[in-house]
Amino acid sequence: METKWLEDFVSLAETHSFSRSAQLRHVTQPAFSRRIQALEAWAGVDLVDRSSYPTRLTPAGVTLHEQALEILGALQAARNMMRSHQAGAADTIEFALPHSLAFTFFPHWVMDLRRHFPALKSRLIALNVHDAVMLLTEGNCDLLLAYHHASQPLQLPAERYEMLSLGHESVAAYARADADGQPLFRLPAPPGRKVPYLAYAAGAYLGQMVEQIQKLSPEPLGLDPIYETDMAESLKAMAQEGHGVAFLPGSSVKKELKSRRLVRAAPAGQCELSMEMRIYRERPEFARHAKPGAQALWEFLRTAV
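^ thats the sequence. predicted structure below, dont judge the formating
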């Protein structure tokens, strides 16, 4: 049994709606339903009366809801006690980021920040986008950095969370260069042929951006998935070895482009997409763990953008 199943169940008990809870929990409705079913399988009894609308709990569900609130509250209290033992935790700003931003954007960004905040203490928590968002909504980090595109917005209600833009990033297709400096693989693929594609795992945010690139392309790209991971750095390594084409954030390939270890697999302006880089926080009136350092940083960023 996973604690997120209990968190899903508590959300369902509060909203009485599978679709609304799925939105709040940042998962698809089918995935949310499967997690509730998994909890019911673990409990060995129906917890939700699916014959009624709005959704309501069975008597067993009501009992588990009461227990779930106690369990989750106890877990959070235990976590808070453990964190109280961490030296300097009160003045350490905790950032939740997707892996791709953690490897590329964050180190340079923090270096620039240190010119204005020389005593900046930070803790980086690198996750997939879904889990990074959950960390913020559960009050377990101070700030969230994430990509944004209109086709895949993060479901963070503006009345509770505020956002600042940190700039833009492009994701484009790259491949290893041959002896003449030309890409081993080109997009779009020639008619009737396929290009080996180093793909993001299902649900990865950058993978959804690649899907958008394919939709916007005037002709089929001819991608043939041969490898899959949710780590952009792994895709980059595979592309450098000549395994195929990878769609990567521009900031992650600066050194490789300069050394010609990677080159564009398509002409400039093709097979690429621009994303916004955003930073989010819980509004002060809702914040569960407001830190003066995080507040000062936010005010600096607000005036800088």
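The two ends are 44 Å apart (CA to CA).
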